[in-house]
Amino acid sequence: MTSGRANQTIVLEDGRRLGFAEFGAPGGRPVFHFHGSAASRLERPPSEPMLVDADVRFISVDRPGHGLSDFQPARRLIDWPDDVRQLADHLALERFWVEGYSAGGPYALACARLLPERVIAGALVSSAAPMDRPGALSGLPLPNMILAASSRWLPWLVRLVRRVMRRSMTGDIERSVRRLMSSIPDVDKEILYESRNAEVFGEAIREGLRPGSRGVTLDDVLIHRDWGFDLGGLEPRIDIWQGTADVNVPPAAAGFLSDAIPGARMTMVPGEGHFFVFERWRDILTQLVDGTDGAVPPR
User: Fold this and answer.
1) Which of 3, 34, 253, 270 is the most buried (most CB within 10 A)?
2) How much is the pTM?
C-alpha cells in the first residue's frame, strides 16, 4: 500500500504534467530517485520507517510517458535535468542528492552533469552504461542483448516487446512478477519473490506501463543511444554500487563508469545480482547522504 504522498503532480513550464511521490521523512535530506526500466515513481524502499530513521526524504519521479508524467515527444536524455530543476524549485529545494537505479542511472548522471551547483552527490545502483563503448553487449543474456541492440537500431521491435510486457502485468501482482522474472538468476529470484519486494516491484512496473508503452519504449532508446554529455566533466561525487553476479547489467558496465567518472567511488557487492538494491537501500542511501566510504555490511 502506498502512502498519501505517492500520487503528486506539478505542471511544468511547457504544460506537461510531471508525476512524483515522496516517502520517508518530510523534512529529511532530499534524495531524488530515478527508477529503473519500465517502472515508475512507486519504485522505492519497501520500508518507509527505514527512510525516516535515516532522515531521508525520498522523492521518486516518473519519467515522461510513465505513470502520472505526460509523454514528451522527441525528448532527449539531457532534457531531464530541467524537469528535475523545476520540481526542486516547486519543492523549495536549493540543493539535493540524486540516485538512479538501472536505467535510471544515466538520468542521475545527466543531473549531476547539468545541475552541478544543485546536486550535492549522486549514486548509481546497477546502472546502465553508455552502449557505444567497446564490448557493450558482452555478457548480456540473449533477451537483454536483443533489447539493447533493437533500442539502437530497431525501435519498432522494442515497442512490440514492451506491449507484450504491459499485457503480462495484469492480475495478481506477485504472480505477474514471478512470470516476468521467471528466467532471472536464483540470487535475484530470492530477493524479488519475497512478498513485500514483489509487491513494490510489481506496483512500480504496472504503474509505469499504465499509460501505455510508448514512454517506456522511448526510454529504452534513449539510454542505449548517445547520452549527449561527457562523463569526464562531472563535478559532484558519484557512488557506484554493483552486484558481481548481475547479468542484466554486467559488472563491466560499472567498471567503465568508474574509470570514466572523475573520483567515482565503487562498491562491489559480492554474489549479488541486479535486484540487490531491495536489501541494501539503507547502505546505499546512508553512504550517499552522509558521504561515508565503507565496506559492504552483511545482509
Assistant:
1) 34
2) 0.92
